[in-house]
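[Q] Does anyone have a clean structure-token version of this?
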Amino acid sequence: MIKLIATDMDGTFLDSNKNFDMEFIRTYQHLCQKGIKFVIASGNQYQRLFQKFLPMSLDMVFIAENGSYIAEGSNELYTNTVSPMDTEKICQLFQQHPEVFIVLCGKKKAYIKNANKDYEEMIKLHYCSFQFVDSFDALYDEDILKIAVYDPNADIKLFLEKIKDQLPESVKVVTSGNMWMDIQNKSINKGIAMKYLQDLYQITPEECMAFGDQMNDYELLLSVKYGFAMENAVDSIKEIAYDICLDNENQGVIKKINEYLGI
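[A] Here you go.
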């Protein structure tokens, strides 16, 4: 019997227009009636995720920033922050690479340099609480959950090869698509966050279902028995999946959940 269902957002639960079918409202009502917890497990900002699902958000669980922040509704459960020393070192490294830009993802808001203000509309797709600043120097002591890197040239994996040996040893990098990569502590990922929730709610991996499409979903799918890869997922995710469902444009997550619920 499934007691918890988790899903990634972009490329998984959401279509290319960042929307989901309103059929989900009916699906969610059925989940609540059966006492099945619904978890959003995303690399996105908690504030954006919470806003996206109002008023349902109050009863949902959120794994945000690839596991660095966990909340049940509006109640914070867990936070994992990058050290001020590592944050400063990473910011200084990226000063040498103007071909990309970084977003400091804080617990309260995200910070972007004024020099990158031309990308504000794109930023709004991923962040609803953000601030443009002249410099990051005064932010190193903030609660920074991760550092997101955006490559306008859509070749983030090639860029990663250039700089990976210069990053602090205590951090790791996960890519998401061709334009984004996230830098955060090695001690956290979506799978570890899922294990935290399984322990908290006394739920086993055999009682969990999850959906994903990119490498930041790898550990999430391994943390549950029923890990589904989207048809549009990268090959490495498909290889470890329990099964493959319809792609995000065809609302594969909702249809698979409805199939399980028998509705």
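[Q] Thanks! Anything notable?
[A] The chain has two domains: 4-79+188-261, 84-185.
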